[in-house]
Structure to design on (1527 residues):
């Protein structure tokens, strides 16, 4: 009884503490969350999200400290209309203008003080790296793993049970055999010694049973493995660029179809052209994980000059040495600005740059040693031969989430094939998936189904119902 | 003649009930021992021992294991570096352009995928062709990927840089040089401006223009009669009576796509209760494609053409007698009366290349008041401008050593002149010879400097096919090789001040400049040039206002001309030479699609065949010239001697060929050409003559044809391939499965004695025809209503039910659809030998049937493709369910499921299924090299030719059956477009390749469940029938009966 009370009490108090803590941080969290939304909508076009790097506008980390000498209203005023402050001759404003002109900061007259405060709170926490929600909470994957384990343990249980029962059967069989034998001996029917285990195991019937079982088992295994030939579920090859879907789609929440812009209008989802990467990486020049080592690859492939923000003229005709010189310089200059390398000697930085460049050439160069030109990605999703698949049909018309077939790409550091891409897998989905029947005028051609739905005879129309299992829907 | 015949027949074997024919219609696949000797006569008698069998089995198993156990290869995916805005990978982009080759012209839309052209469509914005195409235009995309194209410029066979070419040419030319540019008709105003600039720099330059199949006499006659050296604008859609003297205006003459469009408009039966159609009378000796479409054919020998025209003229103008044969004279008198009855609504044309004959034709039209109604000069055609007298004059100059430089600009005079041999010899006397040809030809072979031009689909350009009707040519792919636009070469050599060489695309710049000055300045719709240019380039065509030509005064000397008409040469054998639809005057010989396209009338491929007349003796036997005969797989060879030179040629007995005449296609026998043309057929140009005006005559009245001197064992004629088993002969005996069924259950399904394959009638008897069709259909439907499986009929009344309508009256047999189908569906080319072995792969064939007069018959063309039967006999015999039915009524074919038993093909009543006997596409892992025409690599095995493949259609490999899919990839694409836009499907979303290619609108495809669609409009005519409806396969293709307007009194 005593134990119980103690446990109950401690649990209660723990819950209270937890709840209070949650309540307190929930307020901040809401503010920061709003700040984050506002930042992404209004500021992120010009200010880097990590608050540490300069972009079109200055790095915002520590902005409050920098304006600490002035009343907070000045900072509000600056954000709402910077040029008026410059014209009015505010000292901080003039200082900033001198540094950044001719770039004019956009005016945000609609932002309230509270909203600006929220943005500042977000900037602050982002700068310090302690924003709530930065570490993702345990989610479905965890549950999945747990479920997997439990399934595994029940399998083990079955195996144990099977073993036990088999043993029991063997023992019982032995006992029965012994009893039979004894009975025979009593009746005096037994000729010679009783059959040994070896005699039984080498008897014709057992051998033929074993051969039969082996043939069945072998056949089953062969067919099963043969079906899997050419399938590569879970295939996750190393790519020439260590592109992280987790960083882009997960952390930065870039929409899948921003890069894979074919998915909504073409059969191919399309691996984005290098110039699509440059759209963002004209600004984001130093990666969060690999620094310049990976991002320089897209510059080198497409001939983008990150320093000047333009494509290099006649890039394709440059020699490997010229190309190396351009981008090594760039890596060196970026590194020397980096905190980590600030105190390093120039030779050391050059060495790191050489090392990085070697890696870049190794991943990009074609057989002639040329880095210019398209990046040769390893294709992960390979459909079987003779099958036609159209992304637009599934994404635009069927409104299927990308994750349904590709898995949680936003959590994949290295992309892997999530689905088996087998015909059975396609067919099963076509059997179950409902067609967007009511919202699309095209389906009015299926008068019969509309009638049935109206009469209440039918509650859904699946892909199968409109012919989605027929050969020539995918094979032609 | 002997007797009028309402039955249909397809050739002499059919008509005589030859045992081979009877046997052949019973089986889908030819007897292997006859057709296939596997290279060795003894092969069929050898025996395979058990040991050998086990050895092969073991090896095969081992090889398959090795091949299958390989690791999955790593595949690469390469995105663009900088993606062009217009391209979405996986989505086709269309560009308006123009197909031009000499005078051949067709505004087109080029379908490109990821930057490579893969298919040609007609441009519906054109007022000339209205979206129609020809087989030649459809095939142009394949010539882009010809492996024999010149890949770089050369000087004396040595590879050279373009700068070196420029230097060499400039060093050889000076302002005093006598330069001759030899061309075929040039339609481009800008190219002509380029010539003018070249002439400004080198004043002694002359452009010599001629056409291998010449209309020079017409041009000259029009100049003499009306002062305009052009081809007038013909309006076949306004003519109630068309009389054509040997002019193949639906196939090859001047502007066939335009004429076919107009012609069909006037002949389609829109209302069966009140039928109206024009009458077409063809005067010729050899059955041309146009002649086969005519209501009446009046047979005159080639040398009698002039006399025939004179006879008609005399009948109209009241002159004396003419020396044309009596039968024709009588018929022409009646024709004259009909023409008079159709004053202002008739049209008389002639393909004659004799000035006086053309003057008479003009006078006839003038007498009939046709100028201003069916003929005008306002939008006169510019599609023939050549005059071969100029090239003959050039030949004289060259012989005399008076030419310093010869520039060959898209012409081939060392091949296509009657005296090409002389031209070749005279070329030795010219110091500098430059050719712009992109592929090898006979003239270019003799040129020291080869400065290859871009292919049409890589070029900028323009064309003015008719006055005021402009169209643009734009590139749809970056040049594949180091070639250069010929115009740019000329401008460079001329140091043109108007050429800005610093820009990226100098000729494009030049073209735009020309358009700004000459076209933009004369229009008022656009204020800014850029807007004007963008709009025109987008549309591809532009119509500028022209005067209607006004009243035209006839100033010709018809009386004088009638006195100068040549007398016929009497009773000897005569030969005529005609341009074929597929390879033209020889310039298309290098295109495998065109080589394998069957001639509409003869149905032969890969070569020219001597057509010999068939004489019927009333019974089941016939006589041919010198006893020359052909059976289904072999044909006799005959020695043909003209002008002292002899060629050994295979023959085809041809119904409709006039007695004492033979005919031969021209343009074959190329010695130097692109991929497929070399050594195919025999060259007949040296057999042609010139008349006293120096104009080429396409016949010879002095020909000897020997008897049988050999046998062509590889006779490639598809006439008897895939025959549907006809009811033939007068006793209505049948030769197909009905024989088995008949005694068992008379009147049971399949037991009908007359198969409904073709229905035809005269327009005056249309009532009887509709009654007959109605009766037979009712009977068939009554039979079909009995079913073994009641309650199991599927009605296809929800969603789509795809169907097709084919108007046999509109179909002219031009075969644009067959080539379009090959291009769209990756249908392989198999070569002559394989066609001979019945292995042609075409999904869409055009069956040709004869009816009527046995020696001068009428013709029906029936496009035959998979009928997508809703009760398909092929489906239920497939052991692996590789062919089955979709809920949209499509007969589906899953190639990767097919194991090649061919039961389906055997069970198909329409014989439309094709089996891949070999790895024709070289797509197989263990491929078997299939050579098409004696070349080093099999056709289509190289990556260049593969660029023409449609990426949305599977490339089939050996051992599977394939057939028409109703362009299922287009259906799926059209449905997706509608779904994406969230709207109902429209007719325009889904059109099959054959439908869009057709110049006459004979094919309509659509959803039979869409009751307001275009297809539904056509499905209610009482002329409609379903082929073989009585066998209860519930086909989805509806045919509309062939109606003719034959005048029996002329026969």
């Amino acid at each position: 009884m005593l134990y119980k009370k103690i446990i109950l009490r401690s649990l209660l108090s723990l819950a209270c503490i937890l709840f209070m803590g949650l309540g307190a941080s929930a307020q901040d969290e809401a503010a920061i969350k709003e700040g984050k939304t506002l930042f992404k909508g209004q500021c992120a076009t010009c200010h880097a999200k990590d608050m540490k790097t300069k972009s079109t506008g200055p790095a915002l980390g520590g902005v409050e400290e920098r304006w600490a000498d002035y009343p907070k209203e000045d900072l509000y005023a600056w954000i709402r209309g910077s040029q008026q402050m410059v014209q009015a001759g505010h000292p901080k404003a003039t200082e900033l203008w001198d540094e950044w002109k001719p770039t004019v900061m956009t005016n945000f007259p609609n932002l309230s003080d509270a909203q600006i405060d929220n943005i500042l709170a977000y900037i602050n926490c982002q700068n310090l790296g302690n924003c709530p929600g930065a570490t993702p909470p345990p989610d479905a994957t965890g549950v999945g793993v747990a479920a997997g384990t439990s399934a595994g343990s029940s399998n083990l249980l079955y195996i144990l049970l099977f073993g036990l029962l088999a043993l029991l059967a063997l023992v019982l069989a032995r006992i029965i055999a012994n009893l039979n034998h004894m009975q025979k001996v009593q009746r005096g029917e037994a000729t010679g010694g009783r059959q040994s285990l070896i005699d039984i195991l080498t008897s014709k019937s057992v051998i033929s049973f074993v051969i039969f079982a082996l043939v069945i088992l072998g056949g089953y295994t062969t067919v099963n493995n043969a079906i899997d030939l050419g399938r590569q579920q879970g295939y996750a090859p190393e790519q020439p660029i260590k592109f992280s879907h987790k960083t882009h789609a997960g952390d930065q929440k870039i929409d899948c179809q921003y890069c894979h812009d074919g998915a909504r209008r073409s059969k191919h989802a399309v691996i984005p052209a290098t110039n699509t990467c440059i759209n963002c990486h004209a600004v984001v020049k130093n990666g969060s994980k690999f620094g310049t080592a990976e991002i320089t690859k897209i510059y080198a492939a497409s001939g983008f000059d990150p320093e000047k923000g333009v494509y290099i003229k006649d890039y394709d005709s440059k020699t490997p040495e010229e190309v190396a010189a351009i981008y090594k310089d760039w890596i060196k200059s970026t590194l020397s600005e980096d905190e980590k390398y600030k105190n390093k000697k120039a030779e050391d930085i050059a060495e790191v740059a050489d090392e990085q460049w070697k890696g870049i050439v190794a991943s990009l160069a074609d057989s002639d040693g040329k880095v210019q030109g398209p990046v040769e990605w390893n294709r992960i999703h390979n459909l079987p031969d003779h099958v036609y698949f159209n992304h637009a049909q599934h994404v635009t018309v069927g409104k299927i989430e990308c994750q349904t077939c590709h898995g949680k790409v936003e959590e994949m550091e290295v992309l892997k094939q999530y689905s088996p891409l087998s015909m059975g897998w396609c067919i099963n989905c076509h059997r179950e998936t409902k067609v967007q029947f009511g919202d699309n005028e095209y389906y009015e051609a299926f008068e019969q189904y509309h009638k049935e739905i109206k009469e209440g005879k039918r509650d859904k129309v699946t892909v199968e119902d409109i012919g989605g299992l027929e050969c020539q829907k995918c094979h032609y | 003649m002997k007797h009028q015949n309402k039955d249909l027949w397809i050739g002499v074997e059919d008509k005589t009930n030859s045992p081979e024919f009877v046997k052949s219609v019973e089986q889908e696949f030819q007897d292997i021992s006859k057709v296939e000797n596997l290279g060795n006569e003894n092969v069929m008698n050898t025996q395979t021992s058990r040991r050998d069998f086990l050895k092969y089995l073991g090896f095969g198993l081992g090889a398959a294991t090795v091949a299958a156990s390989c690791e999955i290869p790593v595949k690469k995916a390469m995105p663009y570096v900088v993606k062009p805005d217009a391209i979405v990978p996986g989505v086709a982009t269309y560009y308006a352009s123009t197909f031009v080759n000499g005078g051949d012209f067709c505004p087109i839309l080029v379908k490109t995928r990821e930057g490579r052209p893969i298919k040609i469509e007609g441009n519906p914005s054109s007022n000339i062709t209205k979206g129609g195409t020809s087989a030649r235009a459809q095939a142009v995309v394949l010539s882009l990927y010809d492996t024999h194209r010149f890949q770089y410029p050369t000087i004396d066979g040595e590879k050279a840089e373009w700068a070196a070419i420029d230097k060499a040419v400039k060093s050889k030319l000076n302002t005093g040089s006598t330069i001759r540019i030899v061309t075929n008709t040039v339609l481009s105003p800008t190219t002509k401006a380029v010539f003018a600039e070249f002439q400004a720099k080198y004043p002694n330059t002359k452009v010599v223009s001629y056409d291998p199949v010449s209309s020079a006499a017409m041009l000259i006659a029009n100049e003499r009669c009306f002062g305009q050296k052009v081809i007038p604008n013909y309006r076949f859609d306004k003519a109630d009576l068309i009389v054509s003297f040997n002019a193949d205006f639906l196939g090859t003459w001047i502007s066939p796509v335009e004429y076919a469009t107009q012609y069909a408009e006037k002949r389609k039966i829109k209302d069966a209760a009140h039928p109206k159609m024009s009458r077409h009378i063809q005067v010729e000796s050899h059955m041309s494609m146009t002649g086969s479409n005519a209501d009446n054919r009046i047979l005159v020998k080639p040398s009698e053409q002039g006399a025939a025209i004179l006879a008609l003229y005399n009948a109209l103008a009241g002159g004396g007698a003419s020396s044309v044969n009596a039968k024709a004279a009588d018929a022409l008198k009646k024709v004259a009366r009909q023409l008079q009855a159709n004053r202002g609504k008739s049209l008389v044309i002639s393909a004659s290349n004799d000035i006086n004959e053309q003057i008479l034709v003009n006078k006839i039209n003038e007498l009939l008041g046709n100028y201003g109604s069916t003929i005008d000069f306002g939008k006169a055609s510019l599609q023939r401008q050549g005059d071969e007298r100029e090239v003959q004059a050039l030949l004289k100059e060259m012989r005399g050593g008076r030419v310093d430089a010869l520039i060959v600009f898209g012409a081939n005079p060392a091949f296509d002149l009657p005296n090409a041999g002389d031209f070749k010899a005279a070329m030795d006397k010219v110091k500098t010879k430059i050719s712009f040809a992109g592929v090898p030809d006979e003239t270019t072979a003799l040129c020291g400097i080869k400065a290859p031009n871009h292919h049409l689909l890589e070029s900028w350009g323009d064309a003015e096919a008719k006055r005021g009707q402009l169209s643009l040519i734009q590139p749809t792919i970056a040049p594949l090789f180091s070639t250069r636009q010929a115009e740019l070469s000329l401008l460079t050599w001329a140091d043109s001040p108007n050429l800005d060489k610093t820009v990226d695309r100098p000729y494009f710049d030049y073209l735009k400049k020309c358009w700004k000055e000459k076209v933009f300045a004369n229009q008022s719709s656009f204020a800014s040039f850029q807007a004007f240019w963008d709009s025109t380039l987008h549309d591809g065509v532009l119509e500028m206002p022209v005067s209607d030509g006004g009243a035209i005064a006839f100033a010709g000397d018809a009386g004088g001309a009638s006195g100068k008409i040549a007398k016929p040469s009497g009773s000897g054998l005569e030969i005529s030479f005609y341009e074929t639809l597929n390879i033209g005057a020889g310039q298309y010989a290098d295109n495998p699609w065109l080589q394998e396209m069957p001639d509409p009338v003869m149905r032969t491929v890969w070569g020219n065949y001597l057509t010999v007349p068939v004489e019927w003796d009333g019974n089941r036997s016939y006589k041919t010239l010198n006893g020359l005969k052909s059976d289904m797989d072999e044909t006799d060879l005959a020695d043909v001697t003209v002008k002292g030179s002899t060629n050994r040629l295979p023959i085809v007995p041809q119904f409709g060929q006039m007695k004492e005449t033979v005919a031969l296609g021209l343009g074959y026998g190329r010695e130097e050409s692109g991929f497929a043309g070399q050594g195919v057929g025999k060259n007949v140009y040296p057999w042609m003559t010139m008349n006293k005006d120096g104009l080429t005559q396409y016949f010879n009245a002095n020909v000897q044809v020997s008897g049988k001197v050999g046998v062509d064992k590889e006779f490639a004629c598809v006439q008897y391939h895939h025959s549907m088993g006809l009811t033939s002969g007068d006793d209505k005996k049948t030769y197909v499965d009905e024989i088995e069924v008949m005694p068992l259950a008379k009147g049971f399904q399949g037991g009908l004695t007359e198969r409904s394959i073709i229905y035809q009638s005269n327009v005056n008897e249309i009532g009887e025809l509709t009654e007959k069709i109605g009766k037979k259909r009712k009977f068939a439907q009554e039979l079909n209503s009995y079913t073994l499986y009641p309650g199991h009929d599927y009605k296809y009344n929800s969603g789509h039910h795809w169907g097709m309508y084919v108007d046999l009256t509109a179909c002219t047999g031009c075969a644009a659809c067959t080539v379009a189908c090959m291009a769209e569906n990756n249908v392989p080319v198999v070569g002559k030998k394989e066609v001979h072995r019945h292995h042609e792969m075409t999904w869409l064939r055009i069956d040709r049937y004869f009816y009527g007069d046995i020696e001068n018959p009428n013709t029906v063309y029936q496009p035959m493709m998979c009928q997508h039967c809703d009760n398909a006999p092929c489906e239920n015999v497939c052991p692996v369910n590789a062919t089955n039915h979709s809920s949209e009524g499509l007969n589906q074919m899953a190639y990767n499921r097919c194991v090649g038993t061919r039961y389906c093909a055997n069970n198909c009543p329409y014989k439309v299924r094709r089996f891949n006997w070999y790895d024709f596409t070289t797509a197989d892992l263990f491929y078997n090299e299939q050579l098409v025409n004696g070349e080093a690599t099999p056709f289509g095995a190289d990556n260049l030719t593969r660029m023409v493949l449609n990426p949305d259609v599977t490339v089939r490999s050996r051992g599977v059956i394939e057939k028409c899919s109703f362009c299922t990839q287009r259906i799926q694409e059209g449905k997706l477009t509608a779904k994406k836009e969230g709207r109902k499907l429209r007719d325009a979303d889904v059109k099959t390749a054959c439908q869009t290619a057709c110049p006459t609108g004979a094919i309509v495809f659509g959803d039979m469940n869409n009751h307001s669609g275009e297809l539904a409009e056509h499905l209610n005519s009482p002329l409609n029938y379903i082929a073989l409806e009585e066998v209860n396969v519930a086909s989805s293709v509806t045919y509309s009966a062939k109606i003719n307007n034959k005048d029996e009194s002329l026969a």
The mean pLDDT of chain B is 87. The two ends of chain B are 8 Å apart (CA to CA). Chain B touches chain A through 50 residues (CB under 8 Å).
